[in-house]
Each structure stands twice: as C-alpha cells, then as structure tokens.
Amino acid sequence: MMELPALAGNVTLAWNPIADPTITGYNIYFWLRGSNATNRVSIGNATSVTISNLVAGATYCFAATTCDASGLQSPFSGDIAFTMPFPPTVSIVTPVYNQQNINGALAATGKATDNSVVSAVFYALNGSSWTAAATTNHWTNWSANLNLTPGTNLIQAYAVDFYGNCSTTNTVRFVYLVCQPLTVQIVGRGSINPNYTNGTPLAVNENYTVSAYPRSGFAFTNWTDGAGNRLTNRATLCFTMLTNLALRANFVDVTKPTLNIVNPSPYFTKQSTNNTFTVTGKASDNVAVGTVYYQLNGSGWTIATTTNNWTNWTANLTLTPGTNALQAYAMDTSGNVSATNTASVQYVVFQPLNVQVCGLGVPDPKWGGINPNYTNGSLLVINQNYTLSAYARSGFMFTNWTDRTGRVLTNRSALQFTMHTNLALTANFVDITRPTLSIVSPASNLRVSNAVFVVTGKASDNAAVGTVYYSLNGMLWTAATTTNNWTNWMAGVTLLPGTNMVRAYAADTSGNTSHTNSSTINLAVPPPAFATLGPATYGNDRYTFLVSGAVGYKYRVQASTDLVSWVSLQTNITPFTFVETNAGRFNQRFYRSIFNP
Question: Which of 150, 176, 202 is a domain's end point?
Fold first, then answer.
C-alpha cells in the first residue's frame, strides 16, 4: 500500500489494460481507511477513473478487480492509499485592528503555514490589485511595504500552497491619522453639536457627524459647503473630513412680527369731520422689523414712517366721505409677514335725501308710507349705508323703489342704499281696490212708455274713478257722462219695445274695474205698433206682400195651412217686403204678422 497526494479533493487512477479477451471490465473500490469498502465505481473497459469530492486531510484506500464474461471477479492489483493536503493559513501580525499611525509609510508583517509547502503570499491595500509579499524564510514570515492614505486603510492578504490551495483572506483595518482644522459657520440663530465652530482639528478621510439645533423662533434649513453647495436638508450631517473643509449650518427666522393700530382703535369706528387723519401704531419682532405697510380703501400698499425702527409708526390719510377702511401689516428683515390688522375712520359729511311716495307717478302720501320717514329732506351721512322700508296703505300695494332716473332699484319693500350727493328715491305703490258702481235709475223691471230714457247711477273708488261704461241690450260698451268726477253719472238710451237690459261698470285710474251691474226696463208697445199686411201677389210659386207697422220695431211673419198651427218664417224691422218662395207646395196658405218685442 502506498500514499499519494491529490489536488483540489480529486484523484485520478490509471493503468495499462491486460491483454486478455476474457476480461470484460473493471471495478474500482475506495473507502476511508478503517471503514468498509462499500463504495464501488464500475468503469467498464476504461483504463482510468477520477474520484472526486474527497475530504482534505483524510486517508483513502483503493482496490481494483477484473470481470470476465461470466461475471466472475478477480483482483487486479493491490490497495492504494493517499492523504488529501490541507489549504495553507495566513495571518497579519502588523498592523493590528484600528491601529493609528501618524506616518504615511508602514511595513506590514505576517506569518504563513501549510501541511505541505507555502508557495506565495499576496496582499492588497485599499482594494488595489493583489501584490506578492516578500519573505526570507520560506514564508514562515512575510512582509510588505505600504504607502498609506489619510484616514482608514484596509490591508488584505492570503497564501497559496504548492498544490494551488488558497488560504482564507485576512483583513485588518487601521487608521493613518492626519488632522486638519474644520471650519464651521452658523448663519442665523442656532447651535451645532459637537461644537466645531473654533477650528477643531479632525482626522482627514475619517467620517464624522454633526447636528444643528435652531433657537426658539428659528428653523434649520440646510447644510452647505464653503462654496454654498447644498449638502443636506436634514439637521444631522454625516461627512468625511477633508483638507480645507468648510461647512455652514443655515437657520432662518420663522417668527412673524406683530403689529397694532393704536389710533384709530380697531374695536370701533372713529368719526372725523376733517378729511385728513393721522394713523399711529406699534410693531415688533424677535429679530428686527423691516417695514410697515398700510392701505386705505384698497388703494394700494404704502410704506408708513417711523423714527425709532418701527417701535412706533405713523401714516397720514386723506379720507373720503363715509366709512374709510384702513389695513396695515409689518414685515421683518427675514421676509416674515404679520397678520393684517384693520380699523375704520368715518369721515362725516351730511347731505339731504329726497324721498317721494308715489302712485301712478304722482306724489301722494295716501298710497303708502316709509320708515324711517325721510320725506322731508332729512340730512344723512355721505357714503353711509341706510335701510328704508315702504308700507302700503289699505287698498294699495307696494311695487318697487326707483331712483331719480326711474331705474328700478328693488322690488322688495326694504331698500338698502348708500347715501351720496343729490340722491333721490321714490317708493311706488299701485291701487289694488276695485271701484264700486250702482244703477240708481231705472229700478229693476221699470215699465215706461217712452222710447227715450236717461239711465243714472253712482260710482266711487279709494283713489279715483276713471270712467263709467254702459251697454243697452248687449250693444257695444259706451262711456257715460258725469259732472262731478263720477260721483254721479248718466247715459241717454233709446229703448226697444218690450224688455230692455241696461248694464254698467266703473274703471278706476289704476285700471281696476268694478263688478258689472244691470237693470231692466220694459217699454210698452204703443197702439200704432200693430202690423198690417199689404196686398199679396202670386207668381212663379211665390207670394209677395209688404209688412207695415210702427217704424223702428220688429215684426215676425208667420204662415199656416189650417189657421191653427203657425210657423215663423221671417223677423225684420218694418216696413219690409216678405217673399214666400215655397207657396206652390201648398193647396192653401194663410199669413199673419205679429209684434216681436
């Protein structure tokens, strides 16, 4: 039995085949020394085999057999044993972890071992390429000269043995300490921790943290470098120290200034009879007030004046008649703006107001009234707001308010208006009450014998009757006459024989109409009103004769064949000629004419 080394956990066995036609293949057995040969590899007619995944440092035994056609096996050779080599080990002796150096050159040292032979040690500084170290005693000790960079440096090293096995890589971090002063400036009101404001020396390429804290009324905005480049908006800054590094912590004022208007008081309206007024006030801030602005009646913001850095300020106003609205605010030197305060000054100027109460365009208080009663040229304050309410008297209704030009201002009874010079208002009312009318003569069913009759009556209204209209027997409506504004009225009519109907109604000056009244008059037919029939002529199956009677009265022609049943044929005003076109159809024909009342 013999021991052989193997590489990377693998071993390859090879042999010369036996010139024997009876051998059909080979079987290879391998096992850990001291265990059973239970692992078999059949390789057929191959002359070599590679065994993989062997454990380093362990000893394996091998045996080979041949197979003939009948499957019988016979030993091929003796056992072979070998031991797998271990990977090498390496250590870094100097520098040690977190060692601080004040020199830029350093000699790194270390040790390397192997169960066979170490062939090389490689090192790298700060991620640079791998470089071979040096040794004088076959790598029992090794060394490397390093050129450090300021700050944290990283050295790595590993060893390789004769068979190419590599050790694990060792790593050591250490510091090349180079200190430089840090410049930190605070802009605004605040502080930093740690306090690096006095040129504190820090190690170059080392990482540090500094935090900013604003004072009351201020807010931290950002960290910037010496060139003004923004580094972060967070209060805590993580930075790597560099030569000539400058940092700036920036704070801003976030507190609004305050402003008060002293005169006029903001709690009530100041009254003035002069058109000039001087406003006074106060302003303050946690740093400094920059300016105070004011405006009057929305005319635009103007800078006020001060003699003591805005502790007190003033503004001269030119007022307009009525209420003047004042606004003011302060701005500090950081651009913060106070709340806008307001106050008012009333410049009192009186002018008379002209108010009328009208119906149908005619001033007359009987139509209605107003409250307050400004109808007597009351003096009101220019540009002051007022309210007038109109109320209608019984039988009337309010319609609208109009101005001097007749323009409708509102249909509501309450009018809100602003007083100005030469203001004229009119409250307009309409009459909604019907007039009344009565027919005095004739009394109903009056019987008369004269065709000419004078109808009389009375009419009244809450305002004024405009006209009385009458109609006889359904004829067109005609205006009656009066001599006393329709308190009494009359109308001459010509009656027809029989019952006559007279109707009448009144219309007031607002267009309201009364109910229509009516009465009847019976005109008795005088004796000459009896009808007479003239001589009848017959021709072409027609009877023709003249009907006579009282002039202007109606008569009806009737016909009968037996003097019992009569049929009306024609009604007309006498005298008229009657023609019977169907006379030839009857053997005998009787005619008569009767008064038609």
Answer: 176
- What's the predicted TM-score (pTM) here? 0.43
Contact 493, 453 (CB under 8 A): yes
pLDDT tens-digit readout, 313-341: 999 999 988 889 999 999 999 999 999 99
- Other Cβ atoms less than 10 A from the Cβ of 367: the count is 25
Give me the domain span that covers residue 327: 258-347
| Residue reference for tokens 């306090």 | 195
Place of tokens 């024989």: 497
Confidence (pLDDT) at 8:
42
3-state DSSP assignment of residue 528:
helix
Quick one: which of 252, 215, 261 has its CA closest to 335? 252
* Residues with Cβ within 8 Å of residue 3, at least 6 apart in sequence: 59, 81, 82, 83
- Determine the 3-state secondary structure of 15 from DSSP: coil
Which residues are CB-contacts of 110 (< 8 A; sequence separation ≥ 6)? 90, 91, 92, 93, 94, 121, 133, 141, 142, 143, 157, 170
Measured between alpha carbons, how far is 235 from 219 in angstroms, rounded to an integer?
10
Return left, alpha or beta for 309; rule: phi > 0 is left, psi -120 to 50 is alpha, else beta.
Answer: left
Q: What share of the chain is helix, strand, coil (3-state, %, to 5)?
A: 0, 60, 40
Q: Would residue 219 count as lying in a domain?
A: yes
Nearest Cα to 121, choosing from 142, 136, 137? 142
CATH code: domain of residue 463: 2.60.40.10
Q: 362 and 310, same structural domain?
A: no
Residue 258 to residue 256: CA distance in whole angstroms = 7
Please, are residues 555 and 531 in contact by the beta-carbon 8 Å criterion?
A: yes
Q: What is the longest distance spanned by two Cα atoms in the chain?
A: 185
CA 375/CA 366 separation, integer angstroms: 14
Please give the tally of structural domains in the chain.
7
